[in-house]
């Protein structure tokens, strides 16, 4: 395990004209009325653009609202998500019931991502462990899944590969995670913006499946539901160490602005 | 322990591809005895279609899940 990249995030460029970013405003205009939430969304978009991460994001789901409709909205205006089962929308997190609740991102991996430049990030607010995976598995050749911490205290992740069946220790669940691939040979995990593990695993193929969150798409059916708290999900291109650190910083500011 | 209601096969089929609050979809799953169930959260938030009000008359019971087995372990 490698902990700590020592990379300082670049300072984002923040607009000073007093108005919101146009992409943030488009999201707010869908029905975000709380001034604190409006400000947090605008700051997040400005920060992502300042870090040159905005264009790398395929889907950004801020799960910080107190109703399912708003939590389904994609900040990047690409594809809204769909909730199924008994999900709780508490206002700053979504929480699975561990029985049947999950998120269908409605993003088909094959048509949206690149084989060797892809990643997913999210913030888990819980301390619990769970037998589950986020993502999808076609049951044949390739897997794009992860679990930050399973019941044996290990993280596991695949990024368009078929193995090896690696497990690495993760002492605590809560945190901001990025699982990403920038080339055909390695996949990487970042936690809190710092490199946590690099695993040699040759990419195999993309999956012709929708990517799920808080469960995994088991060749077309949801399996292994989560019961932990999450307040964002991002599907993006492959990110390097600096970009992963910057993404963590942007969402750290987002959480702080919302009082988390 | 999580609470659920047990559904007949026909009841399960009637819920599939329908929302319980206009946004979120029912997701019947099977318990350890292969009974079809939906969660207490779906029952409590069921407000979209009055034709689904029958679900609120069903008795909540403790969920008995199938063992969680990691197929990649």
Question: What is this structure, in a nutshell?
Answer:
The complex is a heterodimer of chains A (260) and B (73). Chain A is 18% helix and 32% strand. Chain A has 260 residues and is an alpha+beta fold.
Secondary structure elements and their pairing?
The complex is a heterodimer of chains A (260) and B (73).
Chain A: H1 22-28, H2 35-50, E1 57-62, H3 68-71, E2 82-84, E3 88-89, E4 94-95, E5 102-108, H4 109-112, E6 118-124, E7 134-137, E8 143-147, E9 154-161, E10 168-169, E11 175-181, E12 186-191, E13 194-200, E14 210-213, E15 216-218, E16 221-223, E17 229-236, H5 241-257
Parallel strand pairs in A: 7-15
Antiparallel strand pairs in A: 1-17, 2-5, 3-4, 4-17, 5-14, 6-11, 6-17, 7-8, 8-9, 9-10, 11-12, 12-13, 15-16
Helix pairs in contact in A: 1-2, 2-5
Chain B: E1 3-7, H1 9-15, E2 29-30, E3 36-39, H2 40-44, E4 61-62
Antiparallel strand pairs in B: 1-3, 1-4, 2-3
Task: Give a verbal description of the structure.
By secondary structure, chain A is of the alpha+beta class. Chain A has one domain: Jelly Rolls (Sandwich). Helices cover 18% and strands 32% of the residues of chain A. Chain A is built from 5 helices and 17 strands. In chain A, the strands form 3 sheets. In chain A, strands 1, 3, 4, 6, 11, 12, 13 and 17 form an 8-stranded antiparallel β-sheet that branches. In chain A, helix 1 (22-28) packs antiparallel against helix 2 (35-50). The two termini of chain A are 28 Å apart. Residues 1-8 of chain A have low confidence and may be disordered. With 73 residues, chain B is of the alpha+beta class. Chain B has one domain (3-62). Helices cover 16% and strands 18% of the residues of chain B. Chain B contains 2 helices and 4 strands, in the order βαββαβ. A 4-stranded antiparallel β-sheet of chain B has the order 2-3-1-4. In chain B, strand 2 (29-30) and strand 3 (36-39) form a beta hairpin. Chain B is globular and about 45 Å long. The interface between A and B is medium-sized, with 26 and 24 residues.
């Amino acid at each position: 395990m490698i902990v700590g990249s020592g990379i300082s995030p670049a300072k984002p460029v923040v607009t000073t004209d007093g108005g919101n970013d146009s992409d943030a405003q488009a999201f707010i205009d869908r029905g975000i009325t709380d001034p604190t939430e409006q400000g947090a969304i605008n700051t997040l978009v400005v920060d992502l653009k300042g870090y040159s991460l905005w264009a790398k994001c395929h889907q950004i789901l801020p799960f910080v609202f107190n109703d399912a409709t708003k939590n389904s909205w994609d900040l990047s205006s690409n594809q809204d998500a769909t909730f199924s089962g008994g999900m709780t929308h508490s206002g700053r997190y979504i929480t699975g019931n561990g029985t049947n609740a999950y998120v269908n991102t409605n993003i088909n991996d094959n048509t949206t991502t690149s084989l060797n430049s892809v990643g997913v990030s999210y913030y888990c607010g819980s301390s619990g462990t769970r037998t589950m995976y986020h993502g999808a598995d076609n049951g044949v050749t390739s897997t794009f899944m992860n679990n930050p911490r399973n019941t044996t205290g290990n993280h596991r992740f695949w990024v368009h590969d078929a193995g090896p069946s690696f497990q690495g220790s993760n002492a605590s669940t809560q945190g901001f995670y990025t699982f990403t691939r920038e080339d055909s040979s390695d996949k990487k995990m970042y936690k809190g913006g710092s490199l946590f593990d690099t695993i040699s695993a040759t990419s195999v193929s993309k999956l012709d499946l929708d990517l799920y969150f808080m469960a995994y798409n088991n060749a077309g059916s949801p399996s292994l539901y989560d019961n932990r708290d999450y307040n964002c999900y991002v599907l993006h291109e492959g990110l390097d160490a600096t970009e992963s650190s910057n993404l963590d910083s942007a969402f750290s500011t987002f959480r702080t602005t919302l009082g988390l | 322990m999580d609470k659920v209601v047990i559904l007949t096969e026909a009841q399960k089929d009637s819920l599939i591809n329908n929302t319980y609050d206009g946004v979120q979809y029912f997701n019947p799953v099977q318990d350890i005895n292969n009974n079809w169930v939906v969660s207490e959260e779906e029952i409590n938030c069921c407000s979209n279609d009055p034709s689904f009000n029958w679900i609120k008359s069903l008795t909540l019971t403790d969920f008995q899940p199938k063992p969680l087995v990691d197929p990649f372990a």
